[in-house]
Structures are given as C-alpha cells and as structure tokens.
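// run 5 | inverse folding | seed 20
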C-alpha cells in the first residue's frame, strides 16, 4: 500500500484502518491458541569463567609482546576504575585496549571477546599453574626455579640460590618481560592482572628486572575462579526432521523443565510471515504490539502445517529462493537469505509462488560456466573468498576465519599507514611474494669437477638415441629413459679421509656399472697447502693418482682405481698413502711412484680448485652429493636412501624435461646442462642462512617524522617507530654514484635495499661492508645503507671509522662518498687512523673537506647512540655483532668468523627480485612518486607482505556478472575494506552456515561484499529438511541493568509442532561435546507434547589433539603403537592407539600443557621417539610437550624408530597380553575402580566384554533391558562398553546406580570421527558408522574379544558361549539373515541384483549381533581395510544404505565373516515362529510390511520384556528418591551455614 496518490496523512489513516479490520477479523480465529514452543541450545566449557581482561591481554599478545606489556602496565589494578557492573568493566577494557589498537582491531577485539576465543588461552595458564600449587595463604606468587614465595624478601632470598636449581621449561606462549636479562634466573609470576596483589608483585619483580637480576615471565592465575562457565559460540545447531516410518518414541512421560523466560526475546527486523513484515509493523504501530503478536502467532501456526509439496512444485525452489533474496532491499538481503535457508521447511510452500525473471536465470547460467572453469564449482556448490583467500567452510571454523581476518587487517592497515590508497591496497595484496620452496642449486659447470663419464660423447652410450623427442615417447611407469643427453648429473664432493667416502663412491659405481643415464662427477676436497705432497697425505696422493690415470688411460679407469684403493681400507679405518701406492704399483708397474705422488708431481690440477669450489658454493659440511646442482639433505646420504632418492629425482625431473621439450624450450641441438643451469633456482652460492624458510622481519609499516640524530627522543619510541626513524635517517649508496643528496639520478627505483650492520671500527665489520660495496657496484637494483653496532660505548677513539663513514654519507656527493668509504673499509686505512693519522689524508678528489670535518668532529654522538640502542633493542644483537637486513628481513646475528661475501649478497638480491622485488616495484611505479620514496616503499611493502605466514595463493577472480544475480554491499568510502566474495546456493547446508557468518562480517568490518547465487535446477526432492541456527555474535551483549546477557544460544522459536525432530550440533573439528542437562529426549523432540521450551545444554568436554605417526625405518605407520597423554604429576590421563590409515591418532585433552609419551609396556620397549613437529618442545627432547591454548585444531607429527635390539619384533604379536598387565591395570577404571594385580589374570581371562550404543530415550530404555537380560543369564563377570557420544544425561546419571545394583563393570568410550574420513550428515548413519568403523581403536589392546549386542535385543542364554565360539581364524562372526519366513521374500533385497552377484552364493549377514576377535582383527588390519572401503563407497550417496551391515557384507572377500549358527539371532520379521523356541537372542527388527512400532512389538513378541521393564522402572524410582533426598539435605546444610 503506498500513499502516493492520496495526501500522505490520508494514506496512513487508510492503512491503519485496514490493519485494524484485518486484526479484528483474525483475532476471533486466534483466541485460545496455544503458546508458541521453542527449542534452545547452549554450549559451555568444562572450565570456569575466565576474566575478559585477561582474554583481552592475550588478544594483544598476538599483536605483539610489547602491546601485551603496555596493556598490563595500564591495567595493573583496575578494581577502582569501574562501577561494579559488567558493562562498565567491559567498556573499560575496550577503552584501555583501544589506546593500543586501530579501530578495525578494536572491532576484532570485541568479536574475540564475544567468541571467548582466548578463554582457552587463559585457562591453559591456569592448568599449568595447577602443577605448581601456591604457597599457603597466597593469591598470587612467584616461582623461582621451582621454589615459591609471595613476598619481596622471599624473592630476594630465592634469587640468590636460583641458579643452583634447573631453569624451568618456558612455553612458546609465555609472556617474557621486555629487557629481561637472559643469563639471570627465571622468575615466573602467577597472578591475575588487574588485582591489587598483582600490582604489588609486578612492581617488585619489574624493579628486579631493571637491575638485571631476573628474567620475568607472567602466567595468568586465578586464585578464586568463579563458579560460572564460559558460554561458547561459533557452532551450528540443526533440528532435523525425522522420518516417522517406524515409530521410535518412548512413552515415558517427562516432567516439564523450569524455563528461563528471557530466552524468547524480540525477533529481528526482517521477521516475515506470509508476506507481513512484523518487524516493520511493530515500529510503525507500537500501540498495536500485543495484537500484532497474536496475529503473528496465528499466521505462524497456519503456515507451519508443512504439508508435503508435490514434485513439480519443488523443481524450481533453488531459483525461486534466490529470486526472493535478490528482490529484498540490499540492507536486508543477507537477513532474508539467513531466514529462508535456516527455516526452509516452513518457508518452502510460500516460496513456490515466487516468479523468477529470465535475466536472473540467464546470468546465473552464464556465471555457472565461469565458476566451473575458474573455481571448479558445480551448480549448487558454495565457496567463500576473503581478499582472494579461499575459506573452506568444511574444514575451517570461525576461529581460523578470525585469524585470517586479523592477519589481513594487519597487512591492509600496514599498507594504509604507508599512505597507499585503498584501491591499490587490494592490487598489492594479490601479489604472491611468498618465498618459493623450490630447492636452490649451484652451478656445476666448473672445471673443479672431474667427470667420470659423459653420456653425450662416451662410446658405451653410442647405441642410445640422441633426440630429445624420445622423452615424449610413452613407456611403462617407472621406466628410466636411456637418452644420450646429460639430463641427470650427480656430483659428489668428498674428503677422501672420511670414513663414509667409500659408501658414496660404491653407490656411484653401481649407477655407472648398471648403465643408469646419470653423469657422475667427483670433487676431492684435500689439503691445498703447497708444502704437503702425496707421500705424506693420503688425500693429496689420491688426487694425484686419479689425475695421472685419467691422463694415461681415461677417467673411468681412474674411477675404478680409486674404488680399489678404498676397498683396501679395513672397516672403520682410514685411507692411507700405502693403499694408493699399492694400487698404482699394481696397475702401472713400470712407473716411478714418487714422480706421480711426490713433491715434483705435475698431476696437481684441480687440487686447489676443488677446495675453492667447495668453499665458494657454501654447500655445508662434507660429504655433499648434488643432483643437477641441488644438494641432498643429510639424511638422504645413507647408501640405500641415496639410491632410492636419486632414482626418484631422475623420474621427477623427467616430467620437467618433457614439458620443456613439448613447449619447445629444449631441442636436441641445445646444451642440456646449460639449460638446467639457466633455471631460476640456480644461484652462485648456497647459504642456508639466506635460504632458510623461517625468517624474521622488521615491522616497517609505519610513517613518522622521527630521526636518529636526537637520541633522547629516539630512546622513547617503541620498536616500530624506531625502525621507521632509522629508515627515515638512512643515507644510501648506489651504483650510479648518486646519493639522496643530489637529485640528477635517472629516477630509477631500486627494489633491493641492504642495511649492513656491524662495528666498522673492527676488521670483521669492515670486511662485511667491503663485500657489500663490491656487490653494489655490480647491480643497479641495490641501495646500500649502514648501521653501526659498536663493540664498546661510543667515544671519539672507538668510532673513528664509523664517524668518518656516516659523516661522508651525510655531507658528500654520492660518488665521492662511495670512493671515500671504499678506502675506509681497507685495513691499512683503519690501522693508520688508529695510529692518529688525520682522516683528511684519505680524502678523494672533489670532496668538500670543511663540511666533512664539521660533521666528523662534531661533539654529538647521537646517531651512534641511536644506532647502538637500535641494534640492542630492536635487532636484538649483542655489542659488535654483524647482521644484514635485506628489505626488512633480518639475517643474523652473523658469527664472528662467518663468511658472508659478495656471492651471498648476490643470492639475497636474486631471491628478493624473484619472489617480491620486481612485482612490488612494478606496482609502486604506477604511483608515480620520486625514486627515493619509491625505493623506500618497495622495501617497506616487501617487509610487510613477506612477514605474513605462508598461506595458499590468492585466487584471482575477474568476477562474473553481478547485475541481476548477486547481492552487493558496497564498502564505506575512504576506509580500508575487506573484499569478500561468496558463491552459494540458498537452499543448501552451506547457505545455512554462510549467511550468519556474512552477516557478522558486515557488522564487524568494512566489506565490499558480493554474494553470487549458484542455483540448481530440476530438484526432485526437498533440498533442505532441517532447521538450522548458527551461534555467532559480533560483540558481547548486555541486559538493561548492565549485566552480561545469559550467553550466546541457538533459539528455534515458533517451530511447527507436528514433525518429530532430532537435534544435532555442528562444532569445529577438534571439539568433543556432550549433552549435560535436559529432561527431554533430544533424539525425538515432539513439540506437541512439550509444555513450552526444550532447553538443551551441551558442554565442551574435550579439545582433541590429533596427530600422525610414522616409523622412520619403514616409512609405515606403527600399527598398534600406543600413546598416553598426561602431566608430570599424573602421567597417564588419556591413551590412544595409532591406526594404519595415515598413522592417525587422537587424544582427548583440554587447554593446558600436556606430556605425550609412548605407553609403558610393549610400545616403549620396542620403539623410541625419533623426532616430532608441531609440538611445543625442542625437536630433540624425548618428552613431547604440547600446549593446547586455543580452540583451533592441533595436529602434530611424530616419527618413531625401533630400538636396535627389537628390530624384528612386532607390536601386534601373540605375546601382548602376558606383558601388558600394567596396561590392563590402568584400564580397570569402570565402576569398580582399580583391580589388584593377583585378581587380574582371572578377571582378564574371564570377563565378557559387550559393546553397545543407543541414542534417544526409547533405545536407552531398550538398552537397559538388554543389559538386564544378559546379566540374568550368566555367572561370568560382565563389562559393558558404551559409546558416550550419543548417550543422554539421564542415562549417564543412572548407569552407576544400575552397575552397583547388578554388580557389573562399565566404561564409556568415545572417538571423534576423523576429519579425513568421509563425513556422514544424518545422525542415524553416523551411529551406524561408529558400530563398525572404529573397532580397532575404541577399545584398549588388552581387550581381545568383544561382543556387539544391539540395544533392542533380548538375550536368553549365557553369552560366555558366544565369546568362546571358535571363529576358525576369521576376525569376526555374524549371524546370517533368516530365510524361513516365506511371506517376506519380496523384501529380501540380498536375493537379487547387486548383492546376489557380489555374495556369489554366500549368505548376507545381519549386524544386530556379532563377535569380534580383536587380536586377529588388528593383526590383519581389518579396521583399516573397512575404513578404506568405506571411504571409496561412501562418496556415492546411494551406496551403503545400511552402513553398518552393508560394509562388512561388501568386504566379505577381503575380511572374511564366520557365520554363526542361526539360533543366535531370531527376529520375527525374517524367521518363522517354529524356530523361536530355540532362539538364544531375540532382536526387535523393523518390519517393512507392518511398520509396527518398537514398543508394541517388544511387549507382544517377548514374554519377559514387561517384567524386565518394570524391574528397571522400580530401580529408577528408588534412585530418584535417593537423589532427591541427598539434594534436600544439601539444601538444608546450605541454609544452616547461612
């Protein structure tokens, strides 16, 4: 209704009148309607609430330790700084942090506090503190090398004796106070920032640090944690509609739960029901609020009938939903997307009426071709890109998205503070400047290499083809092509006196003898002293003999002779001159040995060259083997390894050559070696320092007007500002001979900036400077600046050269300054200056001496002092240490005698140009600023971009058309913005997750957002059968009185009441959650029977530590190896078994520091830990320490090795149980507690282990009855194992009482579905998966037989008989399906089609009851085979329709099944009545013909069922009375205390 044609007032009046009429007419129909029902879900941590102040401090610590300490200093004690409401406390934190952060970062902080992302970080310190209990009466305390105190006197005393005790282990996340003296004792302060006792102790210890007496480390510690829990967000909740084909609801009544009325708040503004926008109506007509509420309720209930749609109505739902979203106003489009996707089942009917325009259809179609071509997306797929980085919604949770946002914000703000305009920022971001991991090679075209063979000229290869096109001829995989070209070159650099030289040479001989197409070269590194000859030194003798034989005969004979010489050496001995002489005399009896080996020998070529080549290439310790110039790693030099790696490299490189030949880059007339040596990865010298991928960078992303010539001002700046001040003050030398002072340069941007740091008054510093200048003279890309790092306090005497250099750079023309400095860098000049010769003596022509002298003799040493302070505080160098800084990357500190020469500068330059320099330079050229600022900008941008953690490359999307089919939100002008592109089909699971994330992003940061619709056509089924909520809030919410609102929660309001729902949580990969409080059955929520609200409460029970483990000797996973996780005081808290798939293992943990070990017993007898990565302890330490301090996934890699004397032993051998009593002992932690060792043997041999799982109250009721039926029929002790993941809180509370009553043991086991195994989305199918996929890792190794009994079974015999049944070598036994009830023949699907041909006459088995011989199962790796087969089959949604049953039957040929006798399982659906009498167990199978509900069937089929049911109900009543009684007692106790 628009008021266009009427007067505005009249229009409004008319609308008001119409609305009244409508309301009145509807209200008569509404009166007496029921209250609307809701389902809410919350998720809390197991640990107690952590103060937001500490969480904020951890947020700042991730920005920098400096900001962390600034924040701590500002908040030492805030108890009086806010009136006691939560809101004022929060505002204070945000205000204090805001002083240290930019506006974007403040928003990030608010989001982090709303996510509680750092709660786990704070709690991890609390867990670490729990291993160091505080001294009595202290709420904060110091720990000094293990001794504790909480006052100043105690600290002083403990510091004196500290160094006699070992230093404590510090973690990566520890906060070290700046300026701490690394040699001093370590003092750890455990305290809560913001409290008075922290302030006191902090001041005590910081004064000790300033005196140089201590290294101060702060760890958060709450003396009195609050009783509240942390409410988490960042997860999804799904209410899926269950099929009601088979009724599976329990008829036991549930008492209503007490409800928190604040849950049902006002709804959002886009609250649309049947075309009415209630959000709008409420704001327009506030006086009609109550009536509108009633109307809304009526409309909701009339739409919620959810009558099924016809197939033709569903066909276009995806496009229709998209059209509905695109028709909404831009500001509301995302809310509409969220509303429609998350409540799709109730919205679908009204969406079918939407019309889709041709423009939308056509544009979506065109875009889909584009998405498929560039991003590989099919219609219906979704994708999210932030600044071109792909965010994979399946594997990345909100915490990793948050990390991406933060690091992107850092870079963009850095670029912004370098005054780069917003449009250019995104261009620069897209530059890929990450260091390439390609292996660097050195040039092998050097006369120092003695080549043994040459494939192109030697006669023995003459029959091979010469044409490079041969490479493209197809061959069998793994065949090495024999072509007469030097494609593959192996160079061995060795010292003949080393023991392992002979091993390498014999491998080379093997390659040569077997005609492998490999050109082999040798470099002997022997003494190059002139006065040492071959009669004294075996190495020299070997070189001379080799040269002699090469000249006389040929290089092959020389090589063979060398091998013979080495073969004479005894094992463990060294080559001697005698060995060389003996071989020479034997081969050449007529020659005089001394003329070849002695002092006058003419066969000395290559002796000095060999040493020079080795030193110049910088390839590291001898021996060195290089393939095409690329050095092998040390561990690859083992002879067997060397052979395999070389063959592998030959095969890998072949594909590189094939490509080159195919593209025409390499032809038969080209020199192949030249072609290889002209590749980009070939450098003149390899320097591991320069090439290492772990790099540190200066933060140069700042702009200020400070300089180094005012030391007092300089010393007050922070790290970032100091770096900028140094850059501002730097004068540069360049090749053209122009400095910054005279401007007639040709405006050339120099993309490489070197700062040389050293003490120029010391020879080593001058040498570094001299090499840098020599390199600079050869390259137009380089600018050279100098920083002096004096060895002693600056004075006129100790800084003559440094002052002269800096004075010349400040006052002279560039060319003169360069020539003058070149002179100063020479040693004789420095010596002369020290002797007191006047500096003027060394002046070069054209220097302005008076200017120079003024600067040189000036009284101020400010720039020297500033440089010294900068080296100490920012570069972290000791006095006089050298370093090189290239475009902000710090290389150093260099050791005193470390060579860093002209070639290293060339290597550095080539790396920078290749990865970042040229790319950034070409962008900066577009800005059109003068060359000097431009070169500065290249340096600063390079430092900023390169310092980012290495991620995937950004996707370049020249994006599709967005006129009709995309939601577009434009960024605010002028500010930095995030470029976000989403591609989504609005009726998919991904849309349900993506919409709330995009909404939060738009509230959080400035975005340029485009959401492209990627719809599927011709749907034949309802695309979404569930309601969904994603719990995510951009900032912490408060109530009207200033207290925190009751935590983020998922709210499902106005739900339809007819369907049956099941509730699922969708959490980040590494979370294990469990349901803790709810009276309702979350597997079967039927809102018609609920009073008002179903409140589901979940708890984050564990954070997972996952890993992969391999045996280094075999490269295979060590199946059956066990790890334990614990702390120093309690070493075994959790344990796990390594599976063969990917060597995967998982351990349940929580925030804190944990120690990972191999389990005592066979694991640590046979294996030792070889190395580990991704952990928090140094790689060589035996104890693996892992600190879990955030909510993100943690994956580690562990390599193990068999002990030398256990090389032939296997973990899964037949002797396991004899030795593993310790293992069994640690597992007797069911109801009975620990068992004594003497009872062990009997108990272990004679216990029936039964595994079962259930979900939902009805199945749990069946499960209790099944347990009772087992216990009634056996005398043998029973231990039940239940899958904990899906048990309800009521079951977990009741089971200990039942165990006590009936005297059985039980254990709850759980395993998180591994992320690499294909995920199921349907809850029922997940439960089926758990039944079969993880049998080898769910139970401890000591359990060797397990029986699976379905929850809905009744047992009528002693299961000991089944446990002892002979499986005849099969890993498991199942009962086949009955064939005797003939009227069901039509339903026996295994009798025809796929199953009939696959089983080939074998029986199809039922999975309700089976027995597993776990020892055999593990030994033949059955679990790994089942998972492998599942992975292959489950990608097809139509396969494995009964997962737990189809999988073992499908694998019957690989993992054999022993068929159990038919009487072990009787089920009325498939077996006839006559066989019921002999049945040992009765299963309540579903009947596809009658679809009879389970409860009816149970009462009808099993006579004893009702008695069992009554017996358990009586026990439940007694337990309940007992619990109520104790609760009342506790309540009265509390009152009396008051």
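// decoded
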């Amino acid at each position: 209704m628009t008021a266009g044609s009427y007067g505005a007032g009249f229009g409004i009046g008319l609308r008001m009148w119409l609305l009244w009429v409508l309301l009145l007419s509807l209200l008569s129909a509404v009166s007496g309607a029921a209250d609307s029902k809701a389902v809410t879900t919350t998720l809390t941590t197991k640990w107690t609430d952590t103060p937001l102040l500490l969480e904020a401090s951890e947020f700042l610590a991730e920005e920098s330790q400096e900001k962390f300490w600034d924040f701590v200093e500002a908040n030492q004690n805030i108890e009086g700084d806010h009136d006691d409401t939560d809101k004022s406390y929060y505002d204070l934190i945000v205000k204090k942090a805001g002083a240290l952060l930019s506006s974007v970062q403040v928003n990030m902080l608010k989001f982090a506090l709303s996510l509680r992302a750092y709660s786990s970080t704070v709690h991890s310190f609390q867990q670490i503190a729990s291993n160091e209990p505080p001294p009595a009466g202290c709420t904060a305390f110091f720990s000094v090398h293990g001794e504790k105190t909480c006052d100043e006197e105690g600290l002083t005393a403990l510091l004196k004796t500290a160094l006699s005790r070992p230093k404590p282990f510090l973690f990566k996340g520890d906060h070290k106070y700046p300026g701490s003296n690394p040699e001093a004792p370590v003092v750890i302060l455990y305290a809560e920032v913001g409290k008075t006792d922290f302030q006191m102790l902090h001041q005590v210890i910081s004064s000790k640090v300033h005196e140089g007496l201590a290294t101060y480390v702060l760890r958060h510690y709450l003396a009195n944690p609050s009783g509240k829990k942390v409410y988490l967000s960042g997860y999804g909740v799904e209410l899926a509609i269950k099929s009601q084909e088979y009724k599976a609801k329990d008829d036991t009544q549930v008492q209503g739960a007490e409800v928190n009325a604040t849950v049902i708040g006002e709804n959002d503004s886009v609250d649309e029901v049947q075309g009415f926008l209630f959000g709008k109506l409420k704001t327009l007509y506030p006086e009609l609020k109550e009536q509108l509420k009633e109307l809304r309720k009526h409309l909701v209930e009339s739409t919620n009938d959810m009558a099924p749609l016809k197939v033709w109505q569903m066909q276009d739902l995806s496009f229709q939903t998209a059209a509905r979203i695109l028709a909404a106003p831009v500001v509301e489009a995302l809310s509409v997307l969220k509303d429609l996707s998350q409540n799709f089942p109730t919205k679908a009917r009204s969406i079918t009426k939407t019309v889709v325009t041709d423009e939308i259809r056509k544009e979506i179609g065109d875009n889909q071709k584009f998405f498929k071509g560039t991003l590989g997306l099919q219609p219906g797929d979704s994708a999210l890109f932030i600044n071109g980085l792909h965010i994979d919604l399946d594997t990345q949770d909100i915490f990793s998205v948050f990390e991406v946002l933060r690091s992107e914000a850092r870079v963009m703000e850095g670029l912004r503070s370098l005054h780069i305009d917003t449009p250019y920022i995104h261009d620069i971001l897209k530059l890929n400047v990450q260091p390439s991991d390609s292996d660097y090679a050195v040039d092998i075209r050097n006369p120092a290499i003695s080549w043994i063979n040459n494939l192109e000229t030697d006669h023995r290869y003459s029959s091979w083809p010469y044409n490079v096109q041969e490479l493209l001829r197809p061959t069998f995989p793994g065949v090495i092509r024999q072509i007469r070209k030097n494609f593959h070159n192996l160079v061995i650099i060795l010292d003949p006196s080393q023991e392992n030289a002979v091993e390498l040479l014999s491998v080379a001989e093997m390659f040569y003898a077997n005609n492998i197409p490999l050109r082999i070269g040798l470099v002997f590194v022997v003494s190059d002293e002139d006065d040492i000859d071959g009669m004294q030194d075996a190495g020299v003798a070997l070189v001379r003999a080799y040269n002699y034989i090469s000249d006389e005969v040929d290089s092959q004979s020389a090589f063979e002779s060398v091998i013979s010489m080495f073969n004479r050496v005894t094992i463990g001995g060294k080559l001697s001159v005698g060995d060389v002489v003996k071989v020479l005399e034997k081969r050449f009896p007529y020659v005089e040995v001394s003329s070849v080996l002695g002092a006058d020998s003419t066969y000395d070529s290559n002796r000095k060259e060999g040493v020079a080549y080795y030193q110049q290439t910088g390839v590291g310790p001898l021996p060195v083997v290089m393939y095409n110039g690329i050095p092998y790693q040390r561990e690859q030099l083992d002879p067997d390894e060397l052979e395999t790696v070389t063959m592998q490299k030959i095969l890998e490189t072949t594909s590189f050559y094939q490509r080159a030949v195919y593209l025409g880059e390499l032809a038969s007339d080209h020199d192949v070696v030249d072609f290889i040596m002209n590749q980009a990865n070939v450098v003149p010298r390899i320097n591991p320092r320069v090439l290492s991928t772990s790099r540190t960078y200066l933060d140069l992303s700042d702009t200020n007007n400070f300089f180094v010539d005012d030391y007092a001002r300089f010393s007050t700046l922070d790290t970032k500002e100091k770096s900028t001040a140094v850059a501002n003050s730097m004068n540069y030398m360049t090749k053209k001979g122009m400095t910054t002072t005279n401007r007639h340069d040709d405006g050339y941007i120099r993309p490489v900036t070197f700062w040389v740091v050293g003490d120029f008054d010391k020879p080593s510093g001058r040498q570094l400077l001299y090499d840098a200048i020599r390199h600079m003279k050869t390259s137009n890309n380089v600018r050279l600046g100098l920083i002096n790092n004096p060895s002693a306090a600056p004075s006129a005497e100790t800084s003559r050269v440094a002052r002269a250099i800096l004075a010349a750079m400040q006052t002279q023309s560039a060319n003169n300054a360069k020539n003058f400095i070149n002179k100063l860098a020479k040693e004789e000049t420095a010596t002369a200056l020290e002797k007191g010769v006047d500096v003027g003596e060394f002046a070069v022509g054209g220097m302005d001496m008076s200017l120079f002298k003024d600067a040189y003799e000036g009284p101020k040493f400010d720039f020297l002092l500033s440089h010294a302070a900068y080296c100490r505080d920012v570069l972290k160098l000791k006095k006089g240490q050298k370093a090189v800084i290239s475009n902000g990357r710090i290389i150093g500190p260099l050791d005193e005698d470390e060579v860093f020469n002209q070639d290293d500068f060339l290597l550095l330059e080539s790396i920078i140009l290749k990865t970042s320099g040229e790319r950034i330079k070409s962008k900066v050229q577009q800005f059109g600023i003068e060359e000097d600022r431009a070169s500065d900008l290249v340096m600063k941008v390079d430092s900023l971009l390169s310092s980012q953690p290495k991620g995937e490359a950004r996707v370049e999307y020249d994006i599709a058309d967005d006129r009709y089919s995309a939601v577009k939100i434009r960024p605010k002008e002028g500010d930095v913005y995030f470029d976000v592109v989403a591609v989504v089909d609005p009726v998919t699971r991904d849309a349900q997750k993506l919409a709330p994330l995009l909404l939060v992003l738009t509230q959080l940061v400035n975005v340029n957002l485009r959401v492209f619709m990627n719809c599927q056509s011709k749907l034949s089924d309802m695309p979404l059968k569930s309601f969904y909520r994603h719990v995510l809030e951009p900032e912490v919410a408060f109530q009207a009185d200033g207290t925190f609102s009751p935590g983020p929660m998922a709210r499902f309001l106005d739900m339809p009441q007819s369907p049956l729902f099941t509730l699922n949580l969708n959490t980040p990969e590494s979370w294990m959650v469990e349901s803790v409080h709810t009276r309702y059955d979350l597997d079967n929520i039927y809102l018609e029977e609920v009073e008002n609200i179903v409140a589901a409460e979940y708890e984050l029970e564990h954070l997972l530590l996952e890993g992969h483990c391999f045996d280094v000797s075999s490269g295979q996973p060590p199946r059956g190896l066990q790890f334990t996780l614990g702390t120093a005081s309690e070493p075994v808290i959790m344990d796990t078994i390594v599976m063969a798939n990917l060597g995967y293992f998982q351990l349940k943990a929580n925030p804190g520091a944990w120690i990972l070990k191999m389990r005592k017993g066979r694991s640590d007898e046979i294996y030792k830990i070889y190395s580990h990565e991704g952990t928090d302890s140094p790689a060589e330490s035996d104890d693996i320490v892992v600190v879990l301090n955030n909510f993100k996934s943690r994956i580690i890699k562990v390599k193990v090795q068999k002990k030398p004397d256990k090389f032939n032993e296997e973990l899964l051998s037949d002797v396991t149980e004899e030795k593993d009593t310790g293992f069994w002992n640690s597992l007797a932690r069911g109801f009975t507690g620990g068992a004594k060792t003497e009872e062990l043997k009997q108990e272990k041999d004679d216990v029936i282990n039964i595994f079962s799982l259930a979900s939902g109250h009805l199945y749990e009721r069946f499960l209790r009855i099944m347990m009772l039926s087992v216990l009634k029929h056996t005398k043998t002790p029973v231990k039940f194992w239940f899958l904990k993941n899906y048990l309800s809180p009521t079951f977990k509370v009741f089971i200990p009482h039942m165990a006590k009553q009936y005297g059985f043991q039980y254990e709850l086991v759980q395993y998180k579905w591994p992320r690499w195994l294909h995920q199921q989305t349907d809850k029922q199918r997940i439960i089926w998966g758990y039944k079969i996929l993880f049998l080898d890792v769910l139970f401890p190794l000591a359990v060797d037989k397990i029986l699976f009994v379905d929850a809905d079974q009744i047992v009528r015999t002693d299961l000991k008989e089944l446990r002892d049944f002979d499986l005849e070598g099969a890993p498991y036994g199942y009962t086949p399906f009955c064939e005797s009830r003939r009227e069901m023949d039509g339903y026996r699907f295994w009798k025809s089609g796929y199953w009939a041909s696959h089983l080939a006459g074998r029986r199809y088995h039922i999975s309700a009851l089976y027995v597993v011989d776990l020892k055999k199962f593990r030994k033949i790796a059955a679990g790994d085979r089942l998972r492998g087969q599942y992975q292959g089959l489950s990608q097809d949604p139509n396969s494995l329709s009964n997962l737990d049953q189809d999988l073992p039957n499908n694998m019957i040929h690989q993992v054999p099944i022993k068929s159990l006798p038919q009487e072990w399982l009787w089920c009325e659906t498939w077996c006839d009545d006559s066989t019921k009498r002999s049945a040992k167990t009765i299963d309540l199978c579903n009947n596809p013909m009658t679809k009879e509900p389970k409860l009816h069937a149970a009462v009808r089929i099993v006579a004893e069922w009702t008695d069992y049911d009554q017996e358990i109900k009586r026990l439940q009543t007694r337990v309940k009375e007992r619990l109520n009684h104790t609760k009342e007692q506790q309540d009265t106790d509390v009152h009396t205390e008051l």
